Amino acid sequence: MRHRLVASIVLTAGLIVGTTAGALELGSPDFKPDGMLGQRHVYNGYGCAGENLSPALAWKDVPAGTKSFALLVHDPDAPTGGAGWWHWLVVNIPASVTALLQGAGKADGSALPAGAMQPKTDFGAPGWGGPCPPAGDQPHRYRFTLYALKVDKLDLPPDANPSLVGYMVHGASLGQTTLIGYYGRKK
């Protein structure tokens, strides 16, 4: 019920970004599309001092045949030689779920919907790892991509890396949408 309430608030506020009319749409009450992520979402470590809370997210216009969802959060601007940085991966989100509450990305998975799992991020552990770009860089893009999947569950090993997760997600995708937020640090 809490997930549907958050979805209703987000969708009513008009904070949805979609690719086309009737397509899967994703939004957040915590940041506007192409807006800045707040300090509460920033990583706490590596020179960053945030609360490391995942933002609330909600979605609608789910494709027919959707059996589960996956959420992948990536920073393509990270200075990693082209690989970017994976900040959060959540798979096996039940099709009945239409939102994740702020703070759902706890490392132990206790705030996720039943059945959902968080593979390891590029921080080396599961759960939300907030923005923490190098000081002085232009603000980085944080791409929150939600996938509607044609399978109930992805069969992933417990130690799956982000590349394997992405491969499996793409192979089971019925549709996707992306919400982008930004964050940068001054020198």
Write the layout of secondary structure elements.
Elements: H1 2-12, E1 16-18, E2 25-27, E3 35-36, E4 44-45, E5 48-49, E6 57-60, E7 68-75, E8 85-94, E9 99-100, E10 140-149, H2 162-172, E11 173-183
Parallel strand pairs: 3-11
Antiparallel strand pairs: 1-2, 2-6, 4-5, 6-9, 7-8, 7-10, 10-11
CATH class, named Alpha Beta
Unreliable runs: 1-21
* Strand order in space, largest sheet: 3-11-10-7-8
User: What letter string, H or E per element, gives the SSE order?
Assistant: HEEEEEEEEEEHE
Tell me the number of strands: 11
Q: What is the H level of CATH, i.e. the homologous superfamily?
A: PEBP-like
The CATH architecture can be given as Alpha-Beta Complex
| Approximate helicity band | 10-25%
The dominant shape is globular
- Biggest β-sheet: count, sense, barrel? 5 strands, mixed
Number of domains: 1
Give the amount of beta strand, in percent. 25-35%
**How many helices in DSSP terms?**
2
Task: Classify the secondary structure makeup into a structural class.
Answer: mainly beta
What is the CATH topology assignment?
Phosphatidylethanolamine-binding Protein
> If you average the pLDDT, what whole number results?
90
Radius of gyration: 15 Å
Distance between the termini: 43 Å
